[in-house]
Design brief:
This protein has about 260 residues and is an alpha+beta fold. The chain has 6 helices and 13 strands.
Amino acid sequence: MMGATATSLYFSRLILDLQSRQVRSELAQPYEMHRTLMRAFPEAPRSAPPAREEFGVLFRPEVDDQEGTVKVYIQSLVEPDWSYLNRVGNYLSTEAEMPSVSSKDVMPAYKNLRNGQVLRFRLRANPTKRVARENDPLKGKRVELTRENEQIDWLIRKGKEREHDVPGGFELLMKEVKDMRGKVRSVPRASACPEGKQKGRKRDGAGSHATTHLAVLFEGLLRVTDRDAFLETLIRGIGPGKAFGFGLLSVAVAPADA
């Protein structure tokens, strides 16, 4: 179902009521929001990967304090059935100017992507690296990248290699700037905004355990370098923590002057 064989890719938007106790609880415990959203999809066969992976489900909540709403963007390889949310009291917003539930197949548009195309992007991710130093007590463990330059470099690497020996199919757009000494250097046309530590609990068959993720919101401009690999990146997402609201890469056509 993944990659070039995927015929559909659904992009949904839910508008939730920020006054809802359940919504506020799920924002603080993103894995619980993941569990709620997964009710829109069928159960995966026992022999298949977990349902989130099987159906390519990625999501990203975005809080709008001024409107008192939460927009949740969800991407999936199969069409979701959001009708059950009408039975969850006070979950969906009833005061939003736009429909509280919308969904469309974006694959026809994504199939038109081409090499060299410049796109605007947004990504909430959990940038990490694996410690490799032999004398480091954390050797083999993943640690968070806390500096902006490290986070941007992480995203640049993901564009070249999303996973081991798997290309990401994109590069960040660069611009030339002069420093105070008049020296010209290239910098990415992208930003990395830290959103703090996201703590929660994950429940599974063995019980539950505490989780901590560093949330970073990336925005900017990218260029498609390998259209097929980039389509795979859009479908699969970027980085770890996908069941906690990380990894969904959203793109839109950039202005002509970009």
